[in-house]
Design goal:
This protein is α/β, with parallel strands linked by helices. It is globular and about 90 Å long.
Length: 729
């Protein structure tokens, strides 16, 4: 169907009321109207759905739209019905329909009323649906969320793999349009191969969203408080907070509500009515925040989402990009804040351990890309765009300073010789290693793979041992983005030299490398947003008071309050015993026993220095864990083995000890002597007791060092619980 630009613009105005097309829409629509196989890669918010809706409305017959999400189909059907006089112009065909409704859908298609038929791949593959559609006029087939076809896509659906076979059963020459918001070069190739449309006209919009500010912060045990502060500083703005588990979604939304923030939870475990109600509340601005799993967001066309927070780092850069892409769709500000701790990556790896090996390998590779994005100190925008096969110049590119790394640059060092050595080793090993194995070759750590190739016997093995693994991993990431290396598409992750990489070996030039971030809790305990800086002067006074009170009581200072509790006081300025209950690691018991002097000191300090306290910075807790706390206390009173109590709650020992610490550190006494007596003899108990009694700090790392590794982390933490219970509580 050939059509003039004038007619196309007229149709756009008639059906959708728009005066002009957005981005690549016009070219994509023209390609579809010319009956060509078409592939469109358009970022979230780029107007993908219009690319198949308009040509479907303009042509004879029915366009079949394959989509993985029933809720998304329903939204789109409602929207299309809104621009037409005919209810039957768009239909859904899926398992939620009864026989009468299915009959109506088929009747509307036969009579030529239906222009768009939305189906899930499962419904499309039913023999009676294939038989029916064979006899109808199908204008084209649109495969939405086409990345679902690829095992390397972030949302692989096996049923998508069969689409090409089904389409050929319905008709021989049906044009196919594939659409996706996120696809790496690897996934793009997979989509075209699997749809059998390698002849497609491909249209790829830029992935750059210049109005989004990217920031990744270390995730500490204060993450909920940090989120509450961030939300309160952005009061009245719409935001989405993503968590990996339903339990976390429920917990965080309750904590936000208790702290006077309008928030609702959203996850697949809620009934459809509640989900729909919460989604509408968000769209109608009856609530500011949705705390959600990734079940939320597909097809949510709210233009003024001002921030997207990731409480847990996502499983892939595609997921991160798609979820952050829900911010700032109107072109206004969008703050994308993620909290990262390597232990979350380890958790995600554990989830994968039950999956087939091939799936695990892909999952691990995608996770390593996430680690690289979080730990890199180069421009995050440049890194993300490179991942999607797009180059970006931070000097001239739109949005070049819109990320934390560019605004707070880390120091750079010359690495010309190191890059040359690394590229030479890629060449000498015949380009057969992935990043981690290549680094092992460089630093001289052999493994089964390296031995099988006998690389460990070659003269360059271990030639870069003057730097550690983290240094070389960072350098590889930066060399990839600089274009000296690329990751092979067929054997994904294997490093190959590029032509400019080969040139670099011949003629090395300056290469300024930035050191990566390290995200471990100890080094980041005081890592706060600039607005959340601990009051240093007050902190000194609180430490002095703690020391003198400890002397009077004849106990070590940490027994009264630990450092993180003092830091929290120097941040929130609590001036009553009740406000002290909500300070990190201080419960009611501890506040009443030790708090009087501390709150009067803080009150005096606040008055003298005319400090404006933000009342709402006193973060309230929900008591969500009170049932678990009660369960633990009751079972310890019954002297049940600690490992039995933890396994009954499905917890590993490390997490269980953390729960015990939360109980004991906030002032509740736990008598775990029966368990301690099982682990330690009398002499051992005496020497650990004496150590803690004389020590200024209760730091476990320092204790491990003092005892020269005689006791492990868990043993010392358990004894510390006994010590604090007896001496402090």
């Amino acid at each position: 169907m050939s059509i003039s630009t004038k007619e196309l613009h007229k149709a756009l105005k008639t059906f959708f009321g728009f005066d002009k097309f957005k981005g690549l829409q016009e070219q994509v629509i023209t390609s579809i109207l010319e009956q060509k196989n078409t592939f469109a890669i358009m970022p979230t918010g780029g107007g993908k759905s219009l690319c198949y809706q308009l040509p479907a409305l303009m042509q004879d017959g029915t366009a079949i739209v394959v989509s993985p999400l029933i809720a998304l189909m329903k939204n789109q059907v409602d929207a299309i019905r809104g621009v037409s006089n005919y209810e039957g112009i768009a239909h859904v065909l899926n398992s939620s329909l009864n026989k009468t409704e299915i009959k109506q859908v088929k009747s509307d298609i036969e009579s030529g009323v239906t222009k768009l038929l939305y189906v899930a791949p499962e419904s499309l593959s039913k023999p009676d649906n294939i038989e029916f559609l064979k006899d109808q006029t199908v204008s084209f087939m649109a495969v939405d969320e086409a990345h679902c076809i690829s095992e390397w896509g972030h949302d692989f659906r096996p049923e998508y793999r069969n689409l090409k076979h089904i389409i050929t059963q319905i008709g021989d020459n049906i044009p196919i349009i594939g659409l996706t918001a996120t696809a790496t070069p690897k996934v793009q190739e997979d989509i075209l191969k699997n749809l059998g449309t390698t002849d497609s006209q491909t249209f790829k919009a830029s992935f750059n969203r210049p109005n989004l500010f990217y920031e990744i912060l270390p995730k500490t045990d204060q993450v909920d408080n940090d989120i509450i502060r961030f939300v309160k500083q952005n009061e009245g703005k719409s935001g989405i907070i993503y968590c990996l588990s339903r339990k976390r979604v429920e917990g965080l939304s309750q904590i936000l509500q208790v702290n006077g923030i309008k928030a609702v939870p959203y996850h697949a475990g809620l009934d459809a009515k509640t989900r729909s109600k919460h989604q509408d509340m968000f769209l109608m601005e009856d609530t500011d925040i949705v705390v959600a799993t990734i079940a939320f967001g597909m097809g949510i066309d709210k233009p003024d989402v001002r921030f997207v927070i990731h409480h847990d780092i996502p499983k892939s850069i595609e997921s991160y990009y798609q979820e952050t892409g829900r911010a700032g769709r109107d072109g206004g500000e969008g703050h994308c804040l993620a909290y990262y701790a390597y232990k979350d990556i380890e958790k995600l790896e554990k989830f994968m351990s039950g999956k087939p090996v091939a799936e695990q390998e892909i999952g691990f590779a995608l996770l390593q890309e996430v680690v690289a994005m979080a730990e890199t100190s180069m421009s995050r925008r440049k890194f993300i765009l490179h991942y999607f096969g797009e180059s970006f110049d931070t000097e001239t590119g739109d949005g070049g300073n819109m990320d934390d790394n560019v605004r707070n640059p880390k120091p750079q060092t010359e690495a010309k010789e190191e890059v040359k050595l690394m590229l030479e080793i890629v060449s000498h090993t015949h380009e057969k290693y992935k990043s981690k194995d290549l680094v092992n070759v460089i630093i001289g750590h052999d493994n089964a793979l390296i031995k099988s190739h006998r690389t460990n016997e070659l003269p360059f093995f271990g030639k870069g041992s003057n730097h550690d693994l983290l240094y070389w991993m960072a350098l590889i990431r930066q060399a990839l983005v600089a274009g000296y290396l690329r990751k092979d598409i067929e054997t994904y992750g294997v490093l190959k030299l590029t032509p400019i990489g080969r040139e670099f070996i011949e003629e090395p030039k300056s290469f300024m490398m930035t050191e990566d971030h390290t995200y471990n809790l100890e080094s980041n305990r005081n890592y706060n947003n600039s607005s959340d800086i601990v009051d240093k002067a007050l902190m000194r006074m609180l430490k002095d008071l703690r020391k003198s009170n400890a002397k009077k009581l004849g106990v070590p200072p940490f027994v009264i309050f630990q450092d993180p509790s003092l830091e929290d006081m120097a941040l929130k300025y609590p001036i009553t015993i009740e406000e002290l209950y909500n300070i990190h690691g201080v419960g009611e018991g501890k506040a009443k026993r030790y708090g009087k002097d501390f709150v009067s000191l803080i009150k005096r300090y606040v008055d003298e220095n005319e400090i404006e306290r933000m009342e709402d910075m006193i973060i309230k807790s929900t008591g969500l864990n009170s049932s678990l706390k009660l369960y633990i206390i009751q079972n310890i009173d019954r002297k049940l083995p600690l490992d039995d109590i933890s396994s009954a709650k499905g917890m590993n020992m490390a997490d269980f000890i953390r729960e015990l610490e939360a109980i004991v550190f906030s002032g509740t006494k736990l008598n775990i002597n029966y368990w301690i007596d099982e682990i330690f003899d009398e002499d051992q108990q005496d020497e650990i007791h004496d150590y803690f009694m004389e020590s200024e700090s209760d730091d476990i790392e320092a204790a491990i060092e003092e005892f020269d590794g005689e006791y492990d982390d868990q043993e010392l933490r358990l004894y510390r619980l006994k010590f604090i219970s007896e001496v402090a509580n």
